[in-house]
Design a protein that fits this description.
The protein is of the alpha+beta class. The protein has helices at 68-86, 91-104, and strands at residues 7-12, 15-20, 23-32, 39-43, 46-51, 57-59, 114-115. The protein contains two helices and seven strands. The model has no long low-confidence stretch (mean pLDDT 91).
């Protein structure tokens, strides 16, 4: 990843970093809940929420005092992981869906995504 980028998303396995104004935030991460009905969300190893469905998203990152745009991008990426996983999309499809959602949310400056 180039440190000169002002905005971006770095994805490595389940870990996600959001680059905003040349600062890197993360890692955001997720782990499937044992019954596979959702995912648990973490930031720097600390749980901050769960995504159980498109309608049931519980997340509280206030204690970390992150920029709102970082929170928005991270939750879009993590939510896409659950959505794509539950619907059986392949990596190419997942990437296309995520890029579309970021653009629809006005977060296109975080593209292109970087995968490692």
């Amino acid at each position: 990843m180039s440190e000169l980028r002002t905005h971006g998303v770095l994805i490595e396995d389940t870990r996600i970093w959001v680059i905003h104004r040349r600062l890197r935030y993360g890692p955001f991460d997720y782990e499937w809940i044992p019954n596979l009905r959702g995912i648990e969300l973490t930031f720097c190893g600390r749980k901050f929420g769960e995504i159980l469905s498109e309608e049931e998203i519980y997340a509280d990152l206030r204690e970390f005092r992150l920029p709102m745009r970082v929170v928005e991008v991270a939750v879009l990426v993590l939510g896409n992981a659950l959505y794509s996983g539950l619907n059986g999309y392949n990596d190419f499809e997942r990437r296309g869906i995520l890029e579309g959602r970021l653009m629809a949310a006005g977060c296109d400056r975080f593209l292109p995504l970087e995968f490692y």
